[in-house]
Specification:
Layout (H helix, E strand, L loop, with lengths): L5 E4 H5 L6 E4 L17 H11 L6 E11 L2 E6 L1 H13 L7 E4 L3 H10 L15 H17 L4 H10 L1 E8 L4 H9 L6 H14 L13 H36 L2 H7 L8 H12 L8 H9 L5 H25 L1 H12 L4 H13 L4 H12 L4 H5 L10 H12 L10 H19 L12 E5 L6 E8 L5 E7 L4 E3 L9 E2 L15 E5 H7 L4 H10 L12 H7 L6 H19 L5 H4 L3
Parallel strand pairs: 2-4, 2-5, 3-6, 8-11
Antiparallel strand pairs: 1-6, 3-4, 7-12, 8-9, 9-10
Helix pairs in contact: 2-5, 3-5, 8-12, 14-15, 14-16, 14-19, 18-23
Length: 592
């Protein structure tokens, strides 16, 4: 252990006798300790550990690795802990002269600096452009929740004088390399940040050629001006790159974006997709980690490393814009999510995304692709059937799907029911597309099939042979519940035996898509009661299914009985046949 390595209390670390400014360097990843997944965040765990620690004993809080430069302490490892300690001390009103600076990230720097001028307050939810600021605010709320009932003075004294760290100082010129070494073996999420650090390092490389010293004052002055100009431009470029990267990071970490793409990597599909394009052109390095592959891509001889990095960054910027474009455009967004719902492995998802980026201006091509994915066709079956190893065509898959969807008991069929979900989802989405509206795909994890006419109010006759050989009739409803020997009567009852042989209360003609948590609101209500629920419910009462326009169209009808069920089934089949270019046999199609 060198003479610059020592155990320090938090007071000695953050408030040394000689003033120090703590700096988060540009290659560090964003502040993430306030992120909550299935368990408490790192902020909450730290607060719990400190609150529950023995206040009479020293508490060791891991180490920090720094590089010192004049009055600056550059945090190489431990920036998340240090930032959290800064926020805790602000909450405790004990910041004093402590200064924490986020290098390059203006929004982060401004937020931290502004805290010194504010008393404690809980921040409102907002759509921040900066991921750091969003999680700073989350951290403040979490700290308040954990410490609001604690003795502030007692906790402060313990934190400053009993909590210790191992303070490790390294040479400044080894900072980036040390950061890479220390973080390279950590969680996969750091791969993206290591790529960022490498790109910022590469773009900072000098471009100037070494020149002989001139005896001319004017020539040396001109050279000095050129050096200053180039250095200024390099710093400005590095700063812009870091800000852009952090915006990408924040975009991919929005919950709506992660849910849409079903991807929680720090930069989503951005780097993986870029490498997929690169590796298709250059078949090597497939088994390397993302950081190692990017190092290979950026590594060129001499002066062109910086130019190569600029080119790669531009390509990443263009690709990020494409991701934002396909997410932002309502129709592209809707067809892409339909396709992703039907995706297989990760490579299949990347193929889907690539197709949508390539064809983002061709809505007809995207509709064509999405509709075939819904019936189970693969990427190759749709686009390159001659290269597909499958002997099944997309048209055969569509016809098979239609035959299943035409069955009288779709709701009870393990093959037909999932197909019904997808096709009814598509019909609702097409209604939204007419209004250029992004569909709310939250329903897909909370979906339900609702019977328009309640299945509990549909009956059919069952005959059982008695011991004496006589036949005794009795009745059951659509829930397979016994109704007794007397035939149900009343306008709310439908007789399945009087329906067309291809129809029942469980056929596609009597089914609509609904949010699962709205299903209980409908329950076993009659069609008229369901209609009233749909259209007369208090607008302030949560009822997500109100935005399902295809579902609404069914309940907008004046009545609903066996004729409407039959007609709706026919209408569905004809729409499917038209959309997919397939045809049912006359028996199944019931064309009268």
């Amino acid at each position: 252990m060198s003479n610059k390595t020592a155990f320090k209390t938090i007071r000695e670390f953050l408030f040394p006798e000689k003033y120090k400014e703590f700096v988060i360097p540009n290659y560090q990843r964003g502040y993430k300790w306030a992120v909550k997944d299935k368990s408490d965040s790192a902020v909450e765990k730290l607060c719990d550990d400190l609150v529950n620690a023995n206040k009479e004993q020293e508490y060791f809080l891991q180490g920090v690795t720094v590089a010192e430069e004049n009055e600056k302490v550059i945090l190489i490892d431990g920036q998340q802990r240090t930032t959290t300690l800064f926020l805790i001390l602000w909450y405790l009103k004990k910041l004093n002269n402590l200064k924490l600076t986020y290098d390059i990230r203006e929004s982060s720097k401004n937020f931290i600096n502004d805290l010194k001028n504010r008393d404690f307050e809980l921040f409102e939810e907002s759509n921040e452009d900066s991921q750091d600021v969003h999680y700073f605010k989350q951290a403040v709320k979490q700290i308040n929740e954990k410490l609001k009932d604690k003795n502030k003075d007692e906790f402060t004294n313990f934190l400053l004088d009993k909590v210790t760290i191992l303070y490790i100082v390294i040479d400044l010129d080894k900072a980036t390399k040390t950061f890479t070494m220390m973080n390279g073996s950590k969680a996969t999420m750091l791969q993206e940040e290591l790529v960022k650090a490498e790109m910022l390092r590469k773009v900072s490389l000098p471009e100037r050629e070494e020149k002989q010293v001139s005896t001319s004052v004017d020539e040396n002055l001109a050279e000095l001006k050129e050096i200053i100009s180039i250095d200024w431009e390099t710093n400005a470029l590095r700063s812009r790159y870091a800000r852009e990267w952090d915006k990408w990071l924040y975009w991919w970490n929005r919950k709506a974006v992660q849910d849409f793409f079903v991807c929680k990597n720090p930069l989503g599909y951005l780097l993986k997709f870029y490498l997929k394009i690169m590796l298709e052109q250059k078949h090597e390095n497939e088994n390397k980690k993302i950081f190692d592959v990017f190092k290979d891509i950026l590594s060129k001889n001499g002066k062109i490393e910086k130019q190569k990095t600029k080119l790669v960054f531009k390509e990443l910027r263009d690709l990020q814009k494409s991701f934002e474009d396909i997410y932002r455009n309502p129709k592209v967004h809707n067809y892409l999510k339909l396709s992703l719902i039907c995706a297989g492995d990760n490579d299949d998802k990347l193929n889907i995304v690539k197709y949508f980026i390539d064809k983002k201006s061709n809505i007809e091509a995207l509709l064509y692709y999405a509709k075939w994915r819904l019936v189970g066709a693969t990427h190759l079956e749709i686009l390159n059937p001659e290269k597909s190893s499958s002997e099944t065509t997309k048209e055969a898959r569509a016809l098979d799907a239609l035959e299943n969807l035409s069955k009288p008991f779709v709701y009870l069929d393990d093959v037909a029911k999932p197909l019904a979900f997808k096709q009814l989802l598509r019909l609702n989405i097409e209604e939204d597309n007419n209004f250029k509206r992004k569909f709310d795909f939250y329903i897909w994890d909370n979906k339900s099939l609702e019977h328009i006419h309640p299945k509990s109010k549909v009956y059919h006759k069952v005959e059982i042979t008695q011991e004496d050989g006589s036949v005794k009739p009795f009745f059951k409803n659509g829930n397979d519940e016994d109704l007794g020997e007397n035939e149900p009567i009343g306008i709310e009852w439908l007789n399945r035996d009087e329906m067309d042989e291809e129809c029942s209360e469980h056929c596609i003609g009597n089914l609509v898509l609904l949010y699962g948590n709205n299903n209980s609101t409908f329950g076993a209500k009659s069609f008229t009661e369901k209609k009233d629920t749909y259209f007369n419910i208090d607008p302030n009462t949560p009822f997500e299914s109100r935005h399902l326009l295809h579902t609404i169209s069914a309940f907008a009808k004046t009545k609903w009985d066996k004729d409407e069920i039959k007609d709706e089934r026919k209408k569905f089949i004809r729409r499917f046949e038209y959309d997919y270019g397939v045809k049912l046999s006359p028996k199944s199609n019931d064309n009268e």
